Amino acid sequence: MQLRPPIDDETSVLVLTGAGISAESGIPTFRDAGGLWESHAIEDVASPGGFERDPALVWRFYSERRRKARTCAPNPGHRALALLERRLGDRFLLASQNVDGLHGRAGSERLVELHGNLFLSRCSHCARPPFSDEAEHTGALPRCEQCGTGLWRPHIVWFGEMLDPEHLERIDHFMGKAKRLVFLAVGTSGAVWPAAGLVGVARARGADTWLVNAERAENTGHFHHFVQGESGTVLPDLLASTSRW
Ligand code: BV8
Predict the structure, then answer these.
(1) Does 190 have pLDDT greater than 90?
(2) Cα end-to-end distance, the chain, whole Å
(3) Which end of the chain has fewer CB atoms within 10 angstroms, the N or the C?
(4) Once rounded to an integer, what is the mean pLDDT over residues 56-61?
(5) What gap in Å lies between CA 31 and CA 101, rounded to an integer?
(6) pLDDT tens, 36-54?
(7) Which of 98, 132, 156 is the C-terminal boundary of a domain?
(8) Domain range holding 185?
(9) Extended beta strands in 8-156, E state
(10) Are residues 20 and 34 in the same domain?
(11) How far apart are CA 188 and CA 180, in angstroms?
């Protein structure tokens, strides 16, 4: 009998997802065999320096990911989290490292996209707010029509760039007001900071911590519980409503 996170009507659940939750939707992860980093050097396609050096290469990388993400659909793992949100309401928060938009398409609303979203762009020069952009930019690169100076860039947090402080503040506030906290990480190698540090912050707040992952991850030892398996199979059962709700 699979042990389940103890979720009752006083429990808040903070979820962190990574690329693994979208793998069954057909979206390549980063560090698995055949993953995105096998064919691209991180510093060339996911860093400010890379964009400075070769914006066309970066736009080819993100345009291909936009095209791929558009052809993929949420899987039962995404839907199980959207269902849990509907059950828990403001006692639920989802922080995702993913930029593919699948959580939003599965119905998740209490969602913090820590690393941005593939379908938003912004100006690389002026402070114009991010805007919806679904296009694939593989020809002439779009230049900001407001400042006339900067190129459009993906609204993505690249390596070496700060995460949005408001996102981190929202997560911290959520944990602070929880009577009882469960922290659930799904489909992440625990390789990238500061997201990888969230389990430590949650533990320091007394959370019961769970990792659902296809294999042992870098920080598996930091979790109280490790459930090995594919999230599309594991999550619907692990988060199934119990009579105590
Ligand atoms: C920051 C957007 C402050 C890109 C991403 C030196 C200089 C500068 C910074 C650093 C430095 N050294 C360290 C840092 C910090 C750096 C970092 O952590 N580097 C790592 C590589 C060591 N972090 C940063 O730079 C962050 N900013 O620290 O700012 C600062 C500023 C200046 C100087 C110093 C500090 C910004 C990090 C954000 C980077 N952007 N994404 C894009 O997406 O195009 S990160 C990228 O990795 C993705 O967002 C991805 O989500 C994330 C983590 O990867 P995972 O999601 O975990 O995916 P992965 O493939 O690794 O693992 C998938 C897992 O799923 C596997 O374990 C697999 O087994 C499992 N799985 C597979 N299938 C399934 C499954 N599980 C369940 N079911 C399945 N079916």
Answers:
(1) yes
(2) 19
(3) N
(4) 95
(5) 20
(6) 776 789 889 999 999 999 9
(7) 156
(8) 11-27+74-115+163-240
(9) 11-17, 92-96, 111-113, 116-123, 131-132, 152-156
(10) no
(11) 24
Whole-number Å distance, alpha carbon 191 to ligand 1 midpoint, is 6
* Ligand 1 nearest-atom number relative to CA 98: 51
Same domain, 65 and 144: yes
To the query of whether residue 40 is one of the catalytic residues in this protein, the response is: no
Check if 178 has its Cβ closer than 6 Å to any atom of ligand 1.
Answer: no
Q: Is residue 3 part of a domain?
A: no
Contact 101, 119 (CB under 8 A): yes
Does the CB atom of residue 162 touch ligand 1 within 6 A?
yes
Atom of ligand 1 nearest to the CA of 37: 60
What residue has token string 């997802």?
17
Distance 95 CA to ligand 1 centre (A): 13
For residue 196, what pLDDT is reported? 96
Q: What is the pTM of this model?
A: 0.95
100 lines ligand 1 (CB under 6 A): no
For residue 213 and ligand 1, the question of a CB distance below 6 A is answered with yes
Q: With 80 as the cut, is the pLDDT of residue 168 above it?
A: yes
The count of structural domains within the chain is 2
Check whether 205 has a pLDDT greater than 90. yes
CA of 80 relative to ligand 1 center, distance in Å: 24
Q: Which of 115, 137, 155, 222 is catalytic?
A: 115
- In the prediction, which pLDDT does 40 show? 83
CB–CB of 186/22 below 8 Å? no
Q: What is the mean pLDDT of residues 200-218?
A: 96
Residues 189 and 176: their CA atoms lie apart, in Å, by 26
